[in-house]
Amino acid sequence: MNNKKLQKLEAIRGFSALYVVFFHMLPQKIFFLGINVGFLFRFGSEAVIMFFILSGFVIKYSWGKSENKRFKHYFFKRFIRIYIPLFFIFILAYCAKSYTEGGLANPDWATLLGNIFMLQDVISLKPNVISATYMANSVLWSLSYEWWFYMLFILLVKKISSSKLNTWVNILTISTTVSYLIYPFFLNRIIMYFAIWWIGVRLADIYLKGETFTFKSIKKYSYVLLSIIALLGINLFMNFEYTKVYDYPLVAYPFVELRHFVFAFLAMFGGIIWNKLNWFGFDKIFGIFRYLAPFSYVIYISHYYLVTKASYLKFIDNKIIEYTLYVFIMLLFSYLIEVVIYGKIKKQIISYFSINY
Predict the structure, then answer these.
(1) What are phi and psi of 195, to 5 degrees?
(2) pLDDT per residue over 27-45, tens digit each?
(3) Who's near 104: CB < 8 A, 6+ residues apart?
(4) Which of 18, 56, 102, 145 is 20 to 30 A from 194 (CA-CA)?
(5) With contact defined as beta carbons under 8 Å apart, do 121 and 97 qualify?
(6) How far apart are CA 75 and CA 152, in angstroms?
(7) What confidence category does residue 134 fall into, taking pLDDT thresholds of 50, 70 and 90?
(8) What local confidence, expressed as pLDDT, does residue 357 receive?
(9) Rounded to the nearest 10 degrees, how much is the dihedral formed by the CA atoms of 76, 141, 265, 153?
(10) Is residue 1 over pLDDT 50?
């Protein structure tokens, strides 16, 4: 992939991470010239869906370019990428809770184990969740999805021929969506969402083959997504009473799944259209956010403690200054963890295993 297109992916990744921060930080109503501009920051859920699509693209692209396609190599790279920064966030979470409580807090080992084994989801918004997110850090829900997407991808590409791979994914995701109407739980929810992640895989496959991004190139997969959307529409109708159970129905079962897939569908077509327009205006709008991409992961998983629920600067009698400093500290922390510390740890681990593995 040429450098300009890589930078566009990086820019979207950086923008999405910072957008989620503002989604959780800013109030729902921010009036400017009589207009509620706060509405523009109400789509944090969709930003996470963009992460999934980007991830599918990057993993497929990396896999296609990699000479080493052993499972151990793939697993090792994905493991250290997810878990090393996450380890520091677990420590941050415990320290933040201990600070709030004024002493050593209960580490909540059961929930910690649930998050270590990637079984977490937002227990207050979805039925039949195995484990809550650790220390109420709700964004960690997406990590369990991401991790199992990685594992499902390697299982499928290793066991199924490339000519049949898309057919298997189509059948698998649609059938699990049907089962989701009957009994929604962790496993069928993950596999159903794999259809969103697979958008990125399909787009990367088109690119790797040197084909052009056109409506025709995604036509068949759009039918798959439309089928899932239709099924989730039925699910919303069948389980509409749940919208009265949850406090935030727009981001809860059974509406949020439909919302996510509709956005993913629109994002896929939006990308094709913008590509046809040669990404007119993209760099002016999003270009600067590529500088956040190298530490966007830690921005995403740390902001709950460092910005959203932060109170260590509450002595400042100015909310704008207080939260500006929170964001600055979060950016600095994220850079140090993901670029400096993780970079050094990763280098040492890879060096060790290249010699002794």
Answers:
(1) -65, -35
(2) 877 777 777 778 888 899 9
(3) 98
(4) 18
(5) no
(6) 11
(7) very high
(8) 45
(9) 20
(10) no
Q: What is the pLDDT of residues 154-169, one digit of tens each?
A: 999 999 999 999 999 9
The tokens for 10 are 């990086």
Q: Which tokens go with 170?
A: 């189509």
Q: Residue 32 is inside which H or E element, if any?
A: strand 31-32
Across the strands, what pairs with 32? 35
CB 179 within 8 A of CB 209: no
Q: Is the pLDDT of residue 147 over 60?
A: yes
Is-contact 289 15, C-beta < 8 A?
Answer: yes
Question: CB under 8 Å to 331, separation ≥6 — which residues?
Answer: 292, 295, 299
Tokens read off for 39: 């509405």
With b for 16 or more beta-carbon neighbours within 10 A and e for fewer, the 151-171 pattern comes to: ebbbebbeeeeeeebbeebbe
Picking from 289, 301, 264, 286, the residue whose alpha carbon sits closest to that of residue 52 is: 264
DSSP letters, 285-335, are HHGGGGGGGGGHHHHHHHHIIIIIT--TTTTSS-HHHHHHHHHHHHHHHHH
Query: How far apart, in Å, are the Cα atoms of 304 and each of 8, 133, 222, 292, 327?
Result: 26, 12, 35, 17, 11
Task: Report the SS3 class of residue 102.
Answer: coil
Task: State how far Cα 247 lies from the chain centre.
Answer: 23
The tokens of 166 are what?
């898309």
CB of 201 within 8 A of CB of 59?
yes
Residue 237: burial class (beta carbons within 10 Å; 0-12, 13-18, 19+): exposed
